[in-house]
């Protein structure tokens, strides 16, 4: 339900950490993230310390969310003593499930953390249907606090059409 990550990107990340193919040994090149469900939305938090909010780019195409950020590079004359934080442009993609509403994603950047809130799509929310007996209509409950009465005859006609 939540999301999948690109296994090849994870393989690249592990390769870079083990073999140091990104310029230094054992430094991660992706932005770490946490993801969890909070009621009827999913929350994803990316660690982006030292990144200016204006350099963060968030794109959504179908069910793929791409986060791109830029941490400024240092002057060539600067002598680095330790270089464990990646610099330059880096990105991460998440493949979201079809049950999430990508049209209503919100993003907030605060204290070096980019937080995305992705609501569950209405059609994916659980619903209860109560069944009545006899010739009367059936009552259908859609989502929370939404009741709709459906005429049983009209419902049967729509199914048989």
TrEMBL record:
Homology family: Belongs to the small heat shock protein (HSP20) family.
Protein name: 18 kDa antigen
Annotated stretches, region: Disordered: 127-161
Occurrences of domain SHSP (ranges): 24-134
Domain of life, per lineage: Bacteria
SUPFAM superfamilies: HSP20-like chaperones (SSF49764)
Biased composition (Basic and acidic residues): 142-161
């Amino acid at each position: 339900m939540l999301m999948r990550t690109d296994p090849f990107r994870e393989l690249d990340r592990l390769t870079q950490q083990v073999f140091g193919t990104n310029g230094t040994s054992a430094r991660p090149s992706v932005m770490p993230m946490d993801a969890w469900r909070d009621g009827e939305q999913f929350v994803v938090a990316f660690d982006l310390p030292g990144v200016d909010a204006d350099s963060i780019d968030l794109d959504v195409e179908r069910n793929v969310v791409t986060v791109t950020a830029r941490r400024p590079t240092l002057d060539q004359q600067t002598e680095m003593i330790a270089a464990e934080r990646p610099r330059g442009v880096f990105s991460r993609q998440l493949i979201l499930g079809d049950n999430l509403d990508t049209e209503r994603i919100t993003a907030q950047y605060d204290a070096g953390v980019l937080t995305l809130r992705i609501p569950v799509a209405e059609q994916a929310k659980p619903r209860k249907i109560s069944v009545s007996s006899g010739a009367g209509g059936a009552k259908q409950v859609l989502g929370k606090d939404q009741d709709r009465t459906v005429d049983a005859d009209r419902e049967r006609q729509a199914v048989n059409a």
